[in-house]
Write a structure and sequence with these properties.
By secondary structure, the chain is mainly α. It contains nine helices and five strands. 53% of the residues lie in helices and 7% in strands. A three-stranded antiparallel beta sheet has the order 1-3-2.
Length: 227
Amino acid sequence: MTLTPATTPLSAAEARVLATLMEKARTVPDSYPLTLNTLLLGCNQKSSREPLMDLSEADIAAAIDSLKTAGLVRESSGGRTARFEHNAQRGIGVPEQSAVLLGLLMLRGPQTSAELRLTSERWYRFADVSSVEGFLEEMQDRSDDKGGPLVVRLARAPGAREQRWAHLLCGMPAAQASGTSSQNSGREDGDASTQARLDRLEAEVVELQTQVKHLLGELGLSPPRQP
């Protein structure tokens, strides 16, 4: 079974659980697979997470059940305590490098390709930024018969030099869906700001003209003729 974001999007909790399992499999392999309690701590940790979350054990358990049904998480057999591991790469149907990028986007939110290369160091070492972009573009162009796109390149934010990427496993990001209205709002804000500057400059000119006339009067000079 291959995940198709367009028809079976993940919830925010499911994405956090899946991505946390993907992270810990690479960063703390000695503690992997994870117990429910360790997974809870990983999902709610305050570093390397965007947004921060405060999931309960019940939230984690419900997310695990859904992910197991989707073929994205497995429960390890044996031992007194249940442990869980991800099956993201096979379940989503992508190569290792793409799975790494998706995991990072689920954990840390939208990022530029350069940021992804840096944050992926403990997961996978990409040769360069162009290599990261290559896998991102491949996921963006994924055909419908394979489940459709997995990532989207977001519109460039005001003042930003590079565009950021976001995953689509939870559906279209709100920032992208409202991009047009945001751009219109930005233009309106810009127009209002420009008008305010013009009004301020006009007021300053009038004040200067008044001061000049006053000085000329005290000196007994006539104001210059208007052209």
